[in-house]
Amino acid sequence: MDDVVAAVVGLAAGALVAPLADRLATNAPLHLPLLRSVPRSSRLALVAAATALLGTACGLAFGLTLEGAAAALFCWLLVVITRTDLEHRLIPDRIVIPGMVVVLALRTIDDPSVEWVVAAFAAGVALFVVVLVYPQGLGMGDVKLSALLGAGLGYLVGIAMFVGFFFAFVPAAVLLVRHGRAARKQAIPLGPFLALGAVVTLFAGHEIWDWYRGLGR
Hints:
Layout: H1 2-27, H2 44-62, H3 66-88, H4 93-110, H5 115-133, H6 140-153, H7 157-179, H8 191-214
């Protein structure tokens, strides 16, 4: 019964937050006031479906807890970032940096540990090194997003990044087959794939980690 109540609360919260998420995704990339009123977006229905479903999933998985609230906020930030990166090839600092700080604070309050800070720092540094090696395909927005993933997922962030890069490989391979070397000039936004990896890891990361550890036994 508690799971049902938490799921309903998550669904309602996700539906209520959808217009705000859509507004942030509209204003942030254009450097307009974040809460500025915007016309009704044709993408609002998709944003609402994502925030509501993810809110429901967080309620079912984590209940009416601080962990559940942190997980829901984390997911909703990923929805906003996915939309901005798909539309503008941009992960706005005005979303990802404050979001990382709030998620980091909630995670640390819920489970006092240096894990969250260390994971955020390590994930950001890891992707920064990748940017230095391959600057054409990645940007600093991806680096900051990876730090957000570390703040939200802790030591499981490595799984999220692996899953994200794995899914990103599919369209990249299609472009390479179709266009050859010219495909290098056709950028694929990495943010949505990292977000997908993060959502998969949030709900199934421990099971994936246990399965991976069991491979060597």
